[in-house]
Amino acid sequence: PTPISFLLLLNSAKIPILLQAKVYFCELEVDMNSVNRKLRLSDNDSRFSVGQEEQPYPDHPHRFQQCWQLMCRNAVTGRCYWEVEWKGGVLISLSYKGIGRRGNREDCRFGRNDQSWALECSDVFGLSAWHVNRETNIPPLSNSQRIGVFLDFLAGTLSFYCTSSETLVHLHTFSTTFTEPVYPGFGLWTGASVSLSLLTNSGKQTP
Protein backbone atom coordinates (compact mmCIF):
# COMPACT_ATOMS: atom_id res chain seq x y z
CA PRO A 1 0.00 0.00 0.00
CA THR A 2 0.96 3.61 -0.45
CA PRO A 3 2.81 4.86 2.65
CA ILE A 4 0.60 6.88 4.98
CA SER A 5 1.56 10.47 5.73
CA PHE A 6 3.88 10.09 8.70
CA LEU A 7 4.23 13.85 9.15
CA LEU A 8 0.49 13.84 9.70
CA LEU A 9 0.77 10.84 11.99
CA LEU A 10 3.45 12.43 14.15
CA ASN A 11 2.28 16.03 14.22
CA SER A 12 -1.51 16.05 14.00
CA ALA A 13 -3.48 16.27 17.23
CA LYS A 14 -6.22 13.96 15.93
CA ILE A 15 -6.41 11.64 12.94
CA PRO A 16 -8.73 8.75 12.03
CA ILE A 17 -7.53 5.74 14.00
CA LEU A 18 -8.12 3.21 11.22
CA LEU A 19 -6.00 5.22 8.76
CA GLN A 20 -2.87 3.34 9.75
CA ALA A 21 -4.13 0.57 12.06
CA LYS A 22 -5.39 -1.70 9.28
CA VAL A 23 -2.11 -1.39 7.42
CA TYR A 24 0.47 -1.66 10.20
CA PHE A 25 -1.36 -3.36 13.06
CA CYS A 26 0.64 -6.21 14.62
CA GLU A 27 -0.35 -8.72 17.28
CA LEU A 28 2.03 -9.19 20.20
CA GLU A 29 3.01 -12.49 21.81
CA VAL A 30 4.42 -12.65 25.33
CA ASP A 31 7.87 -14.09 25.96
CA MET A 32 6.95 -16.39 28.84
CA ASN A 33 10.62 -16.68 29.78
CA SER A 34 10.67 -12.96 30.63
CA VAL A 35 7.59 -12.70 32.86
CA ASN A 36 8.22 -11.70 36.47
CA ARG A 37 6.72 -14.20 38.92
CA LYS A 38 4.39 -11.59 40.45
CA LEU A 39 2.61 -11.14 37.11
CA ARG A 40 -0.42 -13.26 36.35
CA LEU A 41 -1.46 -13.89 32.74
CA SER A 42 -5.01 -14.61 31.58
CA ASP A 43 -7.26 -14.43 28.50
CA ASN A 44 -4.90 -16.52 26.37
CA ASP A 45 -1.91 -14.57 27.73
CA SER A 46 -3.30 -11.27 26.43
CA ARG A 47 -4.03 -9.77 29.87
CA PHE A 48 -1.42 -9.15 32.58
CA SER A 49 -2.06 -8.24 36.20
CA VAL A 50 -0.19 -8.24 39.49
CA GLY A 51 -1.04 -11.32 41.54
CA GLN A 52 -1.07 -11.68 45.29
CA GLU A 53 1.21 -14.70 45.11
CA GLU A 54 4.18 -15.52 42.92
CA GLN A 55 3.55 -17.73 39.93
CA PRO A 56 5.55 -20.98 39.50
CA TYR A 57 7.41 -19.86 36.39
CA PRO A 58 10.71 -21.76 35.94
CA ASP A 59 14.08 -20.10 36.29
CA HIS A 60 15.38 -18.51 33.11
CA PRO A 61 18.14 -15.96 32.41
CA HIS A 62 15.64 -13.75 30.54
CA ARG A 63 13.17 -13.56 33.43
CA PHE A 64 12.81 -10.24 35.26
CA GLN A 65 13.76 -11.22 38.80
CA GLN A 66 12.56 -8.19 40.79
CA CYS A 67 10.96 -5.68 38.43
CA TRP A 68 7.32 -6.49 37.73
CA GLN A 69 7.86 -6.50 33.99
CA LEU A 70 7.61 -8.68 30.91
CA MET A 71 8.67 -8.49 27.28
CA CYS A 72 7.19 -9.78 24.05
CA ARG A 73 8.73 -12.65 22.14
CA ASN A 74 8.83 -11.15 18.67
CA ALA A 75 10.95 -8.16 17.73
CA VAL A 76 9.15 -5.35 15.93
CA THR A 77 10.76 -3.80 12.87
CA GLY A 78 9.69 -1.64 9.98
CA ARG A 79 6.40 0.14 10.66
CA CYS A 80 4.26 -1.42 13.37
CA TYR A 81 1.22 -0.36 15.38
CA TRP A 82 -0.33 -1.97 18.46
CA GLU A 83 -2.79 -1.04 21.19
CA VAL A 84 -3.22 -1.82 24.86
CA GLU A 85 -5.73 -1.00 27.57
CA TRP A 86 -4.33 -0.14 30.99
CA LYS A 87 -5.56 0.28 34.54
CA GLY A 88 -3.77 1.52 37.65
CA GLY A 89 -0.11 2.28 37.05
CA VAL A 90 1.78 0.79 34.11
CA LEU A 91 4.77 1.22 31.81
CA ILE A 92 4.29 0.68 28.07
CA SER A 93 7.76 0.15 26.68
CA LEU A 94 9.99 -0.66 23.75
CA SER A 95 13.33 -2.20 24.67
CA TYR A 96 16.47 -3.84 23.39
CA LYS A 97 16.76 -7.49 24.37
CA GLY A 98 19.88 -6.79 26.44
CA ILE A 99 18.08 -4.80 29.15
CA GLY A 100 19.00 -5.97 32.66
CA ARG A 101 16.88 -8.70 34.23
CA ARG A 102 18.45 -9.59 37.57
CA GLY A 103 17.92 -6.69 39.94
CA ASN A 104 15.76 -3.68 40.69
CA ARG A 105 18.32 -1.15 39.49
CA GLU A 106 17.80 1.45 36.81
CA ASP A 107 19.43 -0.79 34.19
CA CYS A 108 16.49 -3.21 34.58
CA ARG A 109 13.59 -0.76 34.65
CA PHE A 110 11.84 0.29 31.46
CA GLY A 111 12.60 3.89 30.53
CA ARG A 112 15.30 4.35 33.15
CA ASN A 113 18.26 3.44 30.89
CA ASP A 114 19.56 3.70 27.34
CA GLN A 115 18.15 0.26 26.49
CA SER A 116 14.48 1.22 26.63
CA TRP A 117 11.83 3.89 26.00
CA ALA A 118 8.60 3.99 27.98
CA LEU A 119 5.29 5.74 28.48
CA GLU A 120 4.27 5.74 32.14
CA CYS A 121 0.51 5.76 32.70
CA SER A 122 -0.98 6.31 36.14
CA ASP A 123 -4.50 6.87 37.43
CA VAL A 124 -2.95 9.07 40.12
CA PHE A 125 0.04 10.82 38.52
CA GLY A 126 -1.04 11.04 34.88
CA LEU A 127 1.20 10.40 31.88
CA SER A 128 4.93 10.85 31.33
CA ALA A 129 7.58 9.64 28.89
CA TRP A 130 10.86 8.11 30.08
CA HIS A 131 14.27 7.42 28.50
CA VAL A 132 17.74 7.26 30.13
CA ASN A 133 16.00 8.05 33.44
CA ARG A 134 14.76 11.40 32.14
CA GLU A 135 11.08 12.17 32.54
CA THR A 136 8.96 14.27 30.19
CA ASN A 137 5.57 15.16 31.65
CA ILE A 138 2.66 14.96 29.23
CA PRO A 139 -0.36 17.29 29.54
CA PRO A 140 -3.65 15.48 30.23
CA LEU A 141 -5.07 15.64 26.71
CA SER A 142 -7.46 12.71 27.11
CA ASN A 143 -8.75 10.39 29.79
CA SER A 144 -8.66 7.36 27.51
CA GLN A 145 -7.16 4.23 29.03
CA ARG A 146 -6.42 2.76 25.61
CA ILE A 147 -2.96 3.58 24.27
CA GLY A 148 -1.81 3.18 20.68
CA VAL A 149 1.88 2.72 19.91
CA PHE A 150 3.39 3.38 16.48
CA LEU A 151 6.96 2.41 15.59
CA ASP A 152 8.80 3.47 12.46
CA PHE A 153 12.03 1.57 12.98
CA LEU A 154 14.01 2.95 10.04
CA ALA A 155 12.92 6.53 10.72
CA GLY A 156 13.81 6.10 14.39
CA THR A 157 10.46 7.26 15.77
CA LEU A 158 8.34 5.74 18.53
CA SER A 159 4.99 7.48 19.08
CA PHE A 160 2.29 7.07 21.71
CA TYR A 161 -1.38 8.02 21.35
CA CYS A 162 -4.57 8.02 23.35
CA THR A 163 -7.08 6.20 21.19
CA SER A 164 -10.82 5.96 20.79
CA SER A 165 -13.04 4.26 18.25
CA GLU A 166 -12.57 7.20 15.88
CA THR A 167 -9.36 9.11 16.58
CA LEU A 168 -5.79 9.11 17.79
CA VAL A 169 -4.65 11.89 20.12
CA HIS A 170 -0.87 12.32 19.99
CA LEU A 171 0.89 12.15 23.36
CA HIS A 172 4.63 11.89 22.75
CA THR A 173 7.20 10.86 20.15
CA PHE A 174 10.72 9.62 20.83
CA SER A 175 13.25 10.27 18.04
CA THR A 176 16.38 8.13 18.02
CA THR A 177 18.48 5.74 15.93
CA PHE A 178 17.68 2.13 16.72
CA THR A 179 20.85 0.04 16.56
CA GLU A 180 19.32 -3.42 17.03
CA PRO A 181 15.90 -5.11 17.09
CA VAL A 182 13.44 -3.83 19.69
CA TYR A 183 10.77 -5.60 21.70
CA PRO A 184 7.53 -4.34 23.26
CA GLY A 185 7.37 -4.67 27.03
CA PHE A 186 5.18 -3.79 29.99
CA GLY A 187 5.70 -2.96 33.64
CA LEU A 188 2.99 -2.93 36.30
CA TRP A 189 2.45 -1.67 39.83
CA THR A 190 0.24 -3.09 42.57
CA GLY A 191 -3.38 -3.35 41.41
CA ALA A 192 -2.51 -2.63 37.77
CA SER A 193 -3.44 -4.52 34.63
CA VAL A 194 -2.67 -4.40 30.91
CA SER A 195 -4.70 -5.97 28.10
CA LEU A 196 -3.46 -6.38 24.55
CA SER A 197 -5.97 -5.28 21.93
CA LEU A 198 -6.75 -7.19 18.77
CA LEU A 199 -7.96 -5.82 15.45
CA THR A 200 -10.94 -7.61 13.95
CA ASN A 201 -11.55 -8.02 10.24
CA SER A 202 -13.89 -5.02 10.40
CA GLY A 203 -11.07 -2.87 11.74
CA LYS A 204 -12.61 -2.56 15.19
CA GLN A 205 -10.51 -3.07 18.30
CA THR A 206 -11.28 -5.74 20.87
CA PRO A 207 -9.61 -5.93 24.30
UniProtKB/TrEMBL annotation:
<dbReference type="InterPro" id="IPR043136">
    <property type="entry name" value="B30.2/SPRY_sf"/>
</dbReference>
<dbReference type="GO" id="GO:0005737">
    <property type="term" value="C:cytoplasm"/>
</dbReference>
<dbReference type="Pfam" id="PF13765">
    <property type="entry name" value="PRY"/>
</dbReference>
<keyword id="KW-0862">Zinc</keyword>
<dbReference type="InterPro" id="IPR051051">
    <property type="entry name" value="E3_ubiq-ligase_TRIM/RNF"/>
</dbReference>
<protein>
    <recommendedName>
        <fullName>B30.2/SPRY domain-containing protein</fullName>
    </recommendedName>
</protein>
<dbReference type="Pfam" id="PF00622">
    <property type="entry name" value="SPRY"/>
</dbReference>
<keyword id="KW-0863">Zinc-finger</keyword>
<feature type="domain" description="B30.2/SPRY">
    <location>
        <begin position="8"/>
        <end position="207"/>
    </location>
</feature>
<dbReference type="InterPro" id="IPR001870">
    <property type="entry name" value="B30.2/SPRY"/>
</dbReference>
<keyword id="KW-0479">Metal-binding</keyword>
<dbReference type="InterPro" id="IPR006574">
    <property type="entry name" value="PRY"/>
</dbReference>
<feature type="signal peptide">
    <location>
        <begin position="1"/>
        <end position="21"/>
    </location>
</feature>
<dbReference type="GO" id="GO:0008270">
    <property type="term" value="F:zinc ion binding"/>
</dbReference>
<dbReference type="InterPro" id="IPR003879">
    <property type="entry name" value="Butyrophylin_SPRY"/>
</dbReference>
<dbReference type="InterPro" id="IPR013320">
    <property type="entry name" value="ConA-like_dom_sf"/>
</dbReference>
<dbReference type="InterPro" id="IPR003877">
    <property type="entry name" value="SPRY_dom"/>
</dbReference>
<keyword id="KW-0732">Signal</keyword>
